[in-house]
């Protein structure tokens, strides 16, 4: 559990990156990429430390994990673009009711896509790991995603 909590300190760095991301595109994109690379590396270490996989389990699990992370990265990229679109409207003070409704629809669509992806990969993980380890992986993944979402949410201002 302590290993999962150590991610929170890493996530706090995102509170600095997210506002910069909306304000200064080129330097923020570099900072965001550096941050995301660090999160990916640290996340894998946290998962490994919490699963205690045997060699056979590791051989079967890590390709599934890597595939999931790759697909998840695509959704994260879409979410980043959505946040950028909101930031552009927010900074220009030109967010309309219709624009806000469109952003909501896009966010809900992303949430649905992520849930479908999670369900798909939960099944794949359950095929390669014993039930308790598969459940533990889902818990670790959920805790990490929740911490990251919290940091993003706290950095994004409310619509005006």
Give a nutshell description of this structure.
With 160 residues, this protein is mainly alpha-helical. The protein has helices at 2-12, 14-23, 25-51, 55-92, 97-128, 131-155.
Mean pLDDT: 83
Radius of gyration: 17 Å
Largest sheet composition? none
Strand content: under 5%
Uncertain residue ranges: 1-24
Structural class comes to mainly alpha
Distance between the termini: 38 Å
| Number of separate strands | 0
Number of helices: 6
The shape, in one word, is: elongated
Order of helices and strands: HHHHHH
Helical proportion? over 70%
Could you walk me through the main structural features you see in this protein, from its secondary elements to its overall organization?
With 160 residues, this protein is mainly alpha-helical. It is 89% helix and 0% strand. The chain has 6 helices and no strands. The protein has helices spanning 2-12, 14-23, 25-51, 55-92, 97-128, 131-155. Mean pLDDT is 83; it is low at 1-24.
Highlighted features:
mainly alpha; 160 residues; disordered N terminus
